[in-house]
Amino acid sequence: MTLYPGVKRRMRPTLRLRLTLLNGILLVGAGVVLVLLAWLLVSESLHPVDELRAGSTVTLADGTTKEALVWQAEMVAQASRELLIKGFSALIAVGIIGVALAYLMAGRALRPLHYVTQTAQRLGEQTLDQRIRYSGGDDEVAELARTFDAMLDRLTAAFESQKRFVANASHELRTPLAVMRTEIDVTLSDDEADVAEYRRMAKVVRNASERANGLVDALLVLARSEAQSGRRLVRKMPADLSMSVHNALSAVKAEAERLKLDVTKDLSPAPVVGDPSLLDRLAGNLIENAIRYNHLLGRLWLRTESVDGRSLLIVGNTGYEVEPADVPGLFEPFQRGGWERTGSRGSGLGLSIVRAVCDAHGGTVSAVAQVGGGLEVTVSLPAADTTPVVAATASVPRVRT
């Protein structure tokens, strides 16, 4: 019997006991039916004097004589009595043995379930590496054990990813704060500091605060986008990816001119339904990355189009070489590519936000490393005239090397 916590005076039989009782009921019930069927057959078949003439008698082995009909009735009654006594005695013995074996077999079959429960009770931050690793037959219990192990693998990956995210976010936020505190302490400790020194310190503090503010904004956008994954968008309005590209280009025009980039545009209408502010951030992040990680006199190409019910946004750039195997990792938070893991060139959340926005709009995003350096990113979202996608999958295909 199992007493469930939080429920007063409520006892429920365990699954093992219920299976045993069910097996016992079926076994005893079948035995009773067989015994009664045998009793009926014996009662109907023992009529040896039915063909004799009325008033006939029979002589028994002890020399006594009885009327045939009386002898037949006594014989049927005795046979029926012995059949019932011996049949039910055998049924009781078989029932006890069957119930005991059923209890043992049910316990053996349910043993992995108890192990699943014990493993779940032991799970914690320090024990997520534990697994069931069931080695029995390939049955439903084995399938349950494998499913539980796979769930633990996903939980472990998610937990480790969350820990890395928190550690990276803390590091990224600590860096500008440390810069501001150091600059302030150094300047204040200098008794000979003049107005020019304080102005220099103020500029450094302002730049560091802008970097911290940009990181916080990026984290908020990422959290907002991930919260709306699976087409659970708060705002659903008609939008056009080509207009988002125009807006993003206007914001970075000065930086593109400073690097003297060759910008190629092929912007056809690409209507979608979604959150315009998130779509603007998606296009802005892609174009900002394409410029930030480009080089002097490099190239930047942009294309939007609508094909087969999908609206596409393609952003490509020249720049630093990226290993094909490193491309999927660029969509993880705080990843800046193999050539630069830390530094002041962005927070490392740009492509993570792009993937989250795509996921929120039921789209996909992929990237291809360019020969000679650079990256081409393709965003595919459901077109405005198609049925909204319910389950979103912003997948990043793995590149085999």
UniProtKB/TrEMBL annotation:
SUPFAM superfamilies: ATPase domain of HSP90 chaperone/DNA topoisomerase II/histidine kinase, HAMP domain-like, Homodimeric domain of signal transducing histidine kinase. The keyword Oxidoreductase does not apply. SMART domains: HAMP, HATPase_c, HisKA. Its EC number is 2.7.13.3. GO terms for molecular function: kinase activity. Keywords: Kinase, Membrane, Phosphoprotein, Transferase, Transmembrane, Transmembrane helix, Two-component regulatory system. The keyword Transferase applies. It is an enzyme of class 2 (transferase). Residues 168-385 form the Histidine kinase domain. The lineage of its organism: Bacteria, Bacillati, Actinomycetota, Actinomycetes, Micromonosporales. It comes from Actinoplanes couchii. The chain crosses the membrane at residues 21-42, 83-104. It is found in: Cell membrane. It catalyses: ATP + protein L-histidine = ADP + protein N-phospho-L-histidine. Residues 107-160 form the HAMP domain. This is histidine kinase.
